[in-house]
Design brief:
By secondary structure, the chain is mostly beta strands. Helices cover 9% and strands 51% of the residues. It is built from two helices and ten strands, in the order ααββββββββββ. A hairpin with a 2-residue loop joins β3 and β4. It is globular.
């Protein structure tokens, strides 16, 4: 019985009750990830899920200069004075300016989808595992202005 409880506490087993309450924190995202293209290098790092949240950071570098950075939290069972409690929320602070709550929504697309319709851009953030890769995408609610990244775990071979 102890082994089952220990595995469940690590999020390795999902109970039917947990599935009805919403998604678990995405432990598969933990670690540092890198997306590189001809213009920029973006690094995203995430802590292991612990204490009901994961902490993340993102940094985009172009020509040796940071052009964007962001502090991020994914919080389980989030409650906030600005809105109702939800099963999972993503708080973002782009370039340290403000703090914005994107609410988890069920999606047939798979992975995790968060939305904030009142935001100018993006209004939708989505992450999903793709084998050994992590995919990320931002867009407007209708899918327009889509931007995407394919991340490789840092330290892994190509």
């Amino acid at each position: 019985m102890r082994h089952v409880l220990f595995a469940a506490s690590l999020g390795l087993l999902a109970s039917p009750l947990a599935a009805e309450e919403g998604p678990e924190l995405p432990g598969w995202m933990a670690g540092c990830w890198e997306a590189v293209n001809e213009e920029a290098r973006t690094v995203e790092c995430w802590t292991m899920p612990e204490g009901g949240m994961m902490l993340g950071s993102a940094q985009t570098i172009m020509n040796g200069q940071t052009v964007f950075w962001e502090a991020i939290q994914i919080i389980k069972d989030d409650e906030d004075e600005d809105g109702p409690a939800i099963p999972l929320a993503m708080w973002v602070s782009p370039n340290g300016e403000g703090r914005y709550r994107f609410n988890w929504v069920e999606s047939e697309e798979g992975g995790l989808t968060f939305t904030f319709a009142a935001n100018d851009f993006p209004q939708k953030i989505r992450y999903w595992p793709d084998g050994e890769l992590m995919q990320a995408e931002i867009s407007q609610m209708d899918g327009s202005r889509r931007m995407s990244w394919t991340y490789r775990r840092m330290g892994s071979s190509d």
